[in-house]
Specification:
Elements: H1 6-9, H2 14-40, H3 49-55, E1 57-59, E2 62-65, H4 70-80, H5 89-96, E3 100-106, E4 115-119, E5 125-129, H6 139-153, H7 159-181, H8 196-203, H9 209-216
Antiparallel strand pairs: 1-2, 2-3, 3-4, 4-5
Helix pairs in contact: 2-4, 7-8
Length: 223
């Protein structure tokens, strides 16, 4: 912005100018972060291609959609003010097929970030978090929809997905134990002072009982 331009510095709506400046700064930061990730994860896009067909689902008020690019994930983190865009951990997990980032949206506002999901290959949900890592008053309705989603995607899984899930579960349990042994505590927000391992275990949403039973004798595609 040209701060010597009277239209800028004599504005009648300082809050508007401030908001515009913040959005520009966030966009610049996102661009820098995107380039960093593109250099580290060459060809990252290909890891997102299969997510749409396998994991997207819509019913009632909600829908699950898959990110189409690094930018989508960065925008999600910026908008909801959580760490999905600030740490490489989630990108590492996507590349190794340990877990995926998906977006829960309200059908009426499909482009507005609502809840961010971290999901294992078989649909086990590690985390479901709204703005500032919160879970809002609608969490029961959200959870009911996600149970339907889990049942639906069981029909789409392959043997490779099941195999990736086995390793994902081991890594998850190992991670939980490591942060519990280190006594990692949440330092800010509504969960300040609580053990991170306790919060993660509480948020874990395993498969519905019937889906878990079907997993023992799967009839999924071989590919």
């Amino acid at each position: 912005m040209d701060i010597h331009d009277s239209i800028i510095y004599r504005t009648r709506d300082l809050q508007l100018r401030h908001k515009e400046a913040v959005l520009k700064i966030e966009e610049m930061k996102r661009g820098i972060r995107r380039r960093e990730l593109e250099e580290k994860y060459v060809g990252f896009q290909k890891h997102l291609i299969d997510l749409k067909e396998k994991y997207e689902f819509s019913d009632g008020e909600y829908q699950v959609i898959a990110p189409k690019s690094i930018d989508d994930i960065l925008y999600e983190g910026d908008t909801l003010h959580h760490c999905v865009n600030k740490t490489d951990t989630y990108f590492d997990r996507i590349v190794s097929k340990e877990s995926y980032i998906l977006f829960l949206r309200e059908k009426e506002n499909p482009k507005v970030p609502f809840y961010t999901l971290e999901v294992e290959p078989d649909g086990t949900i590690r985390q479901k978090r709204a703005e500032f890592n919160r879970q809002n008053k609608d969490i029961d309705k959200v959870t009911s929809f996600l149970t339907l989603w889990q049942k639906e995607i069981q029909k789409r899984l392959t043997k490779k997905d099941r195999k990736s899930t086995e390793e994902s579960r081991k890594l998850r349990q190992q991670n939980y134990q490591e942060i519990r042994d280190k006594h990692v505590v949440v330092h800010g927000g509504a969960f300040a002072g609580e053990l991170l391992a306790d919060l993660l275990e509480k948020d874990l949403m395993d498969l519905p009982v019937e889906s878990a039973e079907n997993e023992e004798s799967p009839t999924e595609i071989a590919a």
